[in-house]
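Regression test case RT-17, inverse folding.

Input:
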């Protein structure tokens, strides 16, 4: 693995992607999007960054939605965890085709397709230049992949959570519905919680706040943005303990 260049702001990060980020071309998992995401991760790796990933499963199955339709919530959430594993394997395949070594670690035991989640092993993989994909959330129902991302980021001593979305940051209201929506350059953890801003769920934000772990929300639809974030450029929205301010 190459040595990190001195101008980089982060050396180890956790990239959080929604399952919907893989959708496109009328497909649940778009091969072209997998290729583009993998190329972005490879760029980061080639800079010397240690990259871990957590990906949701909403493109395949969303546990909360199923629970509201009458399904047992625990069963629905376990089904959602399996959906994240499908996405993790798809992403692993795409990353390896880019020449990257990867490991999928699952919070639910499924030895034929993934390693069990072991913190020390995950850290060692990162140190050896491998991309680690954390699947199956926390392994517990009632917790989202946002919470899993916060937990895993802290366990591996990541310097930031980078949340790649379809929008270019956090807004004071839905930018799709409201033309006058304003983007924040920075949002405090407390404002994100008190104002119900769609950053991550409350449990995930609280974990980050308690451990002073910054969250950067940016658009993965804009090529090169991931790399810009790693260089410390002002991109998207920074969620931290600092005072909120509009862009």
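Golden output:
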């Amino acid at each position: 693995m190459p040595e990190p260049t001195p101008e980089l702001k982060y050396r180890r990060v956790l990239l959080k992607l929604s399952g919907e980020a893989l959708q496109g071309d009328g497909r649940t998992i778009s091969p072209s999007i997998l290729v583009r995401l993998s190329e972005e991760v490879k760029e980061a790796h080639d800079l010397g960054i240690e990259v871990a990933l957590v990906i949701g499963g909403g493109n395949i199955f969303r546990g909360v939605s199923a629970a509201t339709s009458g399904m047992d919530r625990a069963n629905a959430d376990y089904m959602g965890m399996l959906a994240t594993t499908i996405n993790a394997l798809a992403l692993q395949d795409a990353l390896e085709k880019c020449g990257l070594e990867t490991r999928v670690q699952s919070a639910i035991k499924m030895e034929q397709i993934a390693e069990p989640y072991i913190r020390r092993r995950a850290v060692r993989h990162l140190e050896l230049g491998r991309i680690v994909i954390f699947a199956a959330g926390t392994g517990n129902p009632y917790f989202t992949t946002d919470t899993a991302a916060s937990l895993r980021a802290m366990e591996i001593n990541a310097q930031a959570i980078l949340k790649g979305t379809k929008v270019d940051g956090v807004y004071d209201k839905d930018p799709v519905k409201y033309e006058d929506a304003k983007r924040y350059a920075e949002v405090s953890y407390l404002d994100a919680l008190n104002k119900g801003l769609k950053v991550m769920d409350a449990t995930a934000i609280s974990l980050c706040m308690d451990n002073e772990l910054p969250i950067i929300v940016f658009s993965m639809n804009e090529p090169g943005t991931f790399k810009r974030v790693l260089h410390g450029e002002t991109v998207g929205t920074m969620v931290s303990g600092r005072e909120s301010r509009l862009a």
